[in-house]
Amino acid sequence: MPEIVVGRNDDDTRKYGTEGTLLLGKHLVGTGEDAHLTTPVLIDAIRPHILTITGKRGEGKSFTLGVVVEELVKLPQHIKKNLCSILIDTQGIFWTMKSPAEKSAQMLKGWNMQPTGFDVQVYIPAGQERTFSSAGVDYDDTFSFAPSELSAEDWIGVFGLDPNEPLGILLQKSFAKLSDKYSINDIVEAVRATEGFEMEKLGLENRFEAAKGWGIFGESRMPSLLESAKISILDLSLTPQNVRTLLVALASKKIYTERVAARRKEELAEIEMSSIKRTPMPWILIDEAHNYLPSEGSTPATNILNRIVKEGRQPGITLVLATQMPYKLHPDALAQTDLILSHRLTAKNDIDALKAIMQTYMLYDVTKYINELPKLKGVAIILDDNSERIYKVRVRPRQSWHAGSSPVAI
Ligand SMILES: Nc1ncnc2c1ncn2[C@@H]1O[C@H](COP(=O)(O)OP(=O)(O)OP(=O)(O)O)[C@@H](O)[C@H]1O
Ligand SMILES: [Mg+2]
């Protein structure tokens, strides 16, 4: 029986068959408890995509993200060398991908697979090293930013200030006094030297003093993320949410600008028919994505992520966005999504959000498909904008250790 490949157009299918795809799981045929597994379901990995993964709490979103990453590692070298992945881990559950899922050995047998640890690089904020070490987390290196890598706008965003209110205005005025490279102490001094009310200056100074405790500032040490075949996991689990969005913004900006510049060089080389070393096409995977690209309001990461959503295809950037609540995700991200993988969802708002994107071609109601799913973890429907089709799938088990399972009280 032929495999189902989602996200791949007919031309590519003719040319490449199933080469360069990720094994997501198997097609589920039938309804409810009578459903059975048939052909493999594969996701195209050679073109850029926006893949949105949704589902209620505990239905398998993070697990599925892990499956995608495992599959990226398993791609053959000649394809893998042109890709790299950056996973934003907000719960601290992906560092365990280095260890094999021994407890799933039996289940994996049914899929002709074995428990396997994967070669991923785990990075944590430099100032949190002691906490991670004492928790026994196996990380590879740390990262930090220089305060001068943040613009006045970034600071306003991360402090949640209004640029037109006194504190926001004071901050911008103070930044006008700063030179190229500055520390937090330099910023505080600039605030003191700026004209303004004492109370406001103090309020701003306190915010900057508090920022020293975030554990992310240092001499600017960012691992190179755009490295051939590299899988980087940024563990932001101990970082406050406003700072996480800032980190995601900074990392995404770096990735985007580097990749846009690289694409330009590649195109030039194509025209001149010369060969250059390729910069890999990144997959950016974000768990709990509605926190970075929300439907209401904005975060420091909103602008750059929206830019990638709209313009990321050309530089070859894939975004994988996991969220419990698709209707809380920015409408542009949903509108540009070409693959939706939805585990069970029940809230009407969320189902409506999915319907709105796919309404143009859907013969059946999304609700009907979701209701037909058996009551198992890891089952989902997949909406493929490319073939305008919808499939029920059982996501394959993880080969590496998944740290996100619920604790039991007994
Ligand atoms: N494909 C699967 N095969 C087997 N078990 C699965 C699968 N997907 C999920 N599970 C089980 O369900 C549990 C919860 O999955 P996961 O942590 O991915 O939930 P989630 O949707 O990310 O939840 P939350 O919204 O709370 O983060 C996993 O620990 C695992 O035991
Ligand atoms: Mg999760």
How would you describe this protein?
This protein has two domains: 4-143 and 222-395, 3-Layer(aba) Sandwich (Rossmann fold), CATH 3.40.50; 147-214. It is 35% helix and 18% strand. With 410 residues, the protein is an alpha/beta fold. The structure holds adenosine-5'-triphosphate (ATP) and magnesium ion (MG). Residues 61-62, 287, 404 line the site of magnesium ion. Adenosine-5'-triphosphate (ATP) binds at residues 55, 57-63, 324, 377-378, 395, 397, 402, 404-405.
List keywords for this structure.
alpha/beta; binds magnesium ion; 13-stranded mixed β-sheet; 2 domains; Rossmann fold; binds adenosine-5'-triphosphate; 410 residues
State Rg.
23 Å
| Global shape | globular
What CATH architecture of the largest domain would you give? 3-Layer(aba) Sandwich
Q: Which class best fits the helix and strand makeup?
A: alpha/beta
Helix content range: 25-40%
List SSEs in N-to-C order.
EHEEEHHEHEHEHHHHEHEHEHEHHEE
Instruction: Measure the end-to-end span.
Output: 45 Å
